[in-house]
Model the fold of this input.
Amino acid sequence: MNIKKKRFSLLIAFLTITLVIFSQQVGSNSPYGRYGYGVLSNPSIGASEAMGGISYGLRRSQSVNPGNPASYSELDSITFIFDMGVSGHFARMDDGINNRDFYNGNLDYIAMQFPIFKNVGASLGLLPYSKVGYNFGTSRSLSNIQYLETYRGTGGLSQVYAGIAWEPIKNVSVGANLAYLFGNFSHSRVSTPFTSNALVSEGRHSYSIRDIKYDLGIQYQYVIDRTRSVTLGAVYSPDILSKADLTSSVMNFSSDPYESPNLPPSQIISNDTLQGEAFQIPQTFGLGLSYQTDKILVGVDGTYQMWENSTYPVELDGLTDDSRFNNQYRINTGFEYVVDRYNQNFFKRIRFRGGVSFSNSYINASVTNPENSQAIGMGSFKEYGVNLGLGLPFHDLRTGHVSMLNIGFGYTRQKPDSDYMIGQDMFKISLNMNVNELWFFKRQFD
Done:
């Protein structure tokens, strides 16, 4: 078996294993995962995440940027790029009276990029779209019966994508991603009586989404001189209207079904399936601008998603289409600085990165006063983020290519706009390996 076949087999095996692992990842404990499709993920990966999440105007030859598929054409004819990231999270939830800490680890993404023809590049990978993972509850009483009411949810959406970009005229590139969007969701309400030997009741809603997602991108790069350029990028994603079967069940168990996953139900009160329920994911518009020299890169992105009045089953949250979602906007800005990328001193070749971001939430939550169980209306939150990072270069003296170990530190604050809602502070440490290799170099000697 020659080296090309070995590499191809390795890629197929790795993609298969990663697909299985990726589908099992949670990476979120936010109670707001109870609504909509969970906590949405930013399309930026690797180095761009440490720059506040900018991606639309990034056009660089030695990193993968699925945030704008038009960037894939910025690649020489012999380079293969492999990019993978993992992260660890510490989150603190606070309702103003009580707080609780959570820890999580996650495989964030896997992506690769390679040339097809001159001025044509392609990319493949696995990316998160949303995450659901919550477990919260409180004590209640009904007819002198004391019980613990717990809300639990798991799942989320991931996407396997393939993209291609073409530079038909100098400095203008167009590209597209075709993604298979998939995920399983489960939302439960479990009532556990404090009385011994009493049955535990669970009401569960579950469904699976399988659909196709498109992203269209364009970039224009204005070259000022040999070391300076400005890049303008735009991305559009059409809306998705998916159909899925929604299964609703009420069952009684002899003990908590989440502590004993294989425990069969003692009683099945009801088990109904609503076929062909509509789930809509709205269209997205993105616009970004970056300025780059041989020492510094600065950029800003803006994203707008039209979530208002999107179709979603009322059985899952009891909300209406006109009150469930908000149109979401997000602003990201960031920079990268290097003293001298060609200097033999390693420390002078280190990339220093930073950025900030701001967004509103696409979901609304029904807010209740916990003291008297009185509904006080709908609430939402704003999210503020700060990122810092380092890029540690590894220079291949034989080929001249630079691989990068990227380390990122992020902090986000979810600030509710209503009393009795839960605020969240999350700290994230991410590790990303960006490998550049000459896979398409034709050797003159064996």
